Amino acid sequence: MDASPDSPVRSGIPEHGRVPKYYAVKTRLSAVLDELGEGGLLPTERDLAERFGVARETVRQALRELLLEGRVRRLGRGTVVAGPKLEQPLSLASYTEGVRLQGRRPGRKLISLDRATADASLAGQLGLATGDPVWHMERVLLADDERVGIESTYVGVARAPRLDRDFDPGSSFYAFARERLGIAVGEAEERIETVLATPREALLIGTPPALPMLLIHRLSRDTEGTPLERVRALYRGDRFSFTTHLRG
């Protein structure tokens, strides 16, 4: 047994020493993933069950955990080894900048861009009066054309009067605000929680509804402290991790 403090084998064995059968299979599957490498196609569940001498349901349970952890992903009818998770910095950098830093190609696909009116809660967050016009923009987040999340943005129409005509929805809103509106982001408040996607969100991202998601609520302000946007961003838990730098 691997005695490393980070060993999944050691951390998965309960004190009584009896290892669940699916977990033993999962451990052996991890070695198979290392051998295949990123993008490698796994044998079928039937073949794996025969190789490990277990029932197909045991293999299926091990694969489900590897899928939730982001170690494997579905591709058509098969299962392949997934690449490393995207590390998104918790900073004022946009999603676009964060993905580019890792050598990936960022993108966004527009779902909708509508003009609405702010309710009391949204108006209070954006420094508006109840009923003031706001833009609501919803986009699917992409990394190398892979759907990895959904971003829902609210911004006052007065802050970006021609958003529907001047903004490229496949680009960064922060870059647009800086270059076209003369607005620089000065600070932001973020809250992170784990959730399950709604059926609609799961369909748009292309994931099973039971896949855990990382949800970020963000309220950003310009350098003068005036609210700029409210964002609800949903990221695939199997494809993303978030990092930050702490200093005492």
UniProtKB/TrEMBL annotation:
GO terms for biological process: negative regulation of DNA-templated transcription. It comes from the Bacteria. GO terms for molecular function: DNA binding; DNA-binding transcription factor activity. InterPro entries: Bact_HTH_transcr_reg, Chorismate_lyase_/UTRA_dom_sf, Tscrpt_reg_HTH_GntR, UTRA, WH-like_DNA-bd_sf, WH_DNA-bd_sf. Keywords: DNA-binding, Transcription, Transcription regulation. Residues 17-84 form the HTH gntR-type domain. It holds the Pfam family GntR. The keyword Transmembrane helix does not apply. The keyword Transferase does not apply. This is GntR family transcriptional regulator. It comes from Wenjunlia tyrosinilytica.
